[in-house]
Design brief:
By secondary structure, the protein is an all-alpha fold. Helices cover 75% and strands 0% of the residues. The protein contains 9 helices and no strands. Helix 3 runs antiparallel to helix 4 and helix 5 crosses helix 6. The longest helix has 32 residues. It is globular.
Amino acid sequence: MEKVQWVPWWWVAAGAGGLVAIGAAIPMSPTAVALGLSYLVVSTVLLTVGLRRRGALRFGPANAVTATRSMLVGLVTALTVAALEGAAVEGAAGEGAASTVLFVTLVACALALDGVDGYVARRTASESELGARFDMEVDAFLLLVLCVYDVRFVGWWVLSIGLLRYAFVVAGAVLPWMRRTLPPRYWRKVVTAVCGIALTVVAAQVLPPEANLAVAAAAMLLMLESFGRDVTWLVRLNLSGRALVSLERASTTSPPPESR
C-alpha cells in the first residue's frame, strides 16, 4: 500500500483519542464508543480503497479538511448513541447538559468545516471526484446522525430527512437510469447546510417543543424539494431519451461526483 493510502488513518487515531477524552469527562457505554469507532474505521477503509483505485499520489489539503469533519462525525455518533442509551445522564444532571453542549459544539464545527473543504480544493487546484464523493457521504451521514439524535424531541418521522439520501442510492441500485449524472446545482449544498443547522437547533433544545417541530418539518420539506427536483429531472431524461439510459450503458457507468 502506498504511503498516501495510510494518511487517512491518522484521523482514525485522532478520533480514537477524542473518544477516550470524551469518555473521561462524560459517561459513555462501550457500545457508544464502539459504534463511533466503527464509523471511523469503515469510512476510512472505503476512502483508502478509493485512493488505491484512483492511484492517488497525495491526500491533499481539501481531503484533510473533510477527514477532520469525518472524525468529528465519529465523535458525534458516539455521543448520539450515549444520549439514546441514557448513559450520558446517569450521573449528575449537569452531565446531560454538558453532553448536549459538547454535541452541539462538535456538530457546529463539522458544519462550519463543510464550507471550507470545497474552498480549499478550489484554491489549491485539488478538486477530485473522490474528494467530492467523500464530502457528500460525510454530509449524508452527519444528517442521519442528527436525525437519530432528534428523534427524542420531534418523533421518528424526522429520520426521513437523513434516510432520503440512502433511499436514493437504493433506488439507483434497482433502477439503473437513477444513476445518471445530475446537472450541477448549488442548491443541493445549501439545502444540506440549512437542514444540518435546523437539526442542530433542535438538538440544542433552545426552542419550545412546537418550534422544534416546525423547524424539523421545514427541514424535511426542503430536503423533499431538493430530492424531488432531481428525481423529476431523471424521470424526464429517462422518458425522453431511453437510448441514453439503456440498461447496458447505465450498468457500466459509475456514480459521478454530482450523483446523489
